[in-house]
Structures are given as structure tokens and as C-alpha cells.
Amino acid sequence: MGTDAIDRRTALAVPILLTASAADASASTQSAESVLLQFLRDFENCDLPRMDSAFAPDATYFDRSPAVTVESFEPYRRGRGMPAGMRKLATELPKTKPGPPYHRVQPIDLLTQSTGRTAIFTFHLEGEDSLGRRTVVLERRSNGWKIIHIHASNIQRQG
Is 122 found in the same domain as 53? Predict the structure, then answer.
């Protein structure tokens, strides 16, 4: 009974363990691009808890700025976490628009540059009179891909 019993148990356990390992590997190797695109869908839906969970605790940002002169540069210096303008938009849109989704965020010319545990994405957001430029940096951490930096800028069309 000794070796046969062990061999049968091992034979039954190995496929189960391999299946579990494959599922874990799949979850841990989810692509950075799919994480970014899910974050943008969460932003369209103004789902603040899911948006917050996409950021690393030490994330930084440079927020977009209005195309006007400002009294203070403070709101446009490096910030921590989710960009304040993004948070404000996700808080205000559900109060005034039907949805979800409450708005559309469609990245144009998405470029991915990755190496090891870091992925850098650049893309444009086109409006009628503006061009938004975004850079989002993700890092693979023990709990998956997390946003560690966002840089946002907008350009207004003259006229």
C-alpha cells in the first residue's frame, strides 16, 4: 500500500496544483496595458474606489492645467496619489450626467514602452478644441501592476 498510495495521491494532486499555479501565474502576469485600459474604464464610470485601488501608495502626478493664467502654481506642482483634477471630475460628473459611463476616455496613439517591472504609456485624448497628452507609468509590484505616476497636459486650439 505504501508506494502505490503515495503515487496515486501524487498523480491526483499534481494536476490540481498545476492548475492552481497556472491561475496564479495568469493573475500575476496580467498585462500592464490591460490594467491601464481597465483603469480608464473605471475613470469613465467614475468608480472612485476602483480608481484609487489602481494607484500605488507612493504614486505621484503632475495634473493638467487650464489654458489660462493662474494666481498660484501650487495646484500644478507634483502631487501624491490620484491627480486632484481626475478625482474632482470623477466626483462631479455623476451629479450632472447620466451613466455610467459618465464620459469617454479613448486613448489615441497609445504607445507602450516596457522593461522588466516598469511600463510607460503615452497617448492623446482628442477634444473638439483641445488635445490632451498623457503619460502613465505602471510598476509591477507584489499585488500586481500599480500606477506610480501620471503626467497630464492639455493644449487648447487657438481661435
Answer: yes
Report d(CA 74, CA 95) in Å as an integer. 27
CA 2 from chain center: how many Å? 53
Residues 6+ apart with CB under 8 A from 18: none
Render pLDDT for 19-43 as a digit per residue (tens, 0 to 9). Answer: 444 444 444 447 999 999 999 999 9
Beta partners for residue 156, in sequence order:
130
52 and 106 part of one domain: yes
Are 20 and 50 contained in the same domain? Answer: no
Give me the pLDDT at residue 28, please: 44
Q: Give me the pLDDT at residue 158, please.
A: 82
* pTM of the predicted model as reported, rounded to 2 decimal places: 0.77
Contacts of 112 (CB under 8 A, 6+ apart): 32, 33, 119, 120, 121
4 shares a domain with 37? no
- Choose among 6, 35, 8, 12: nearest CA to 144: 35
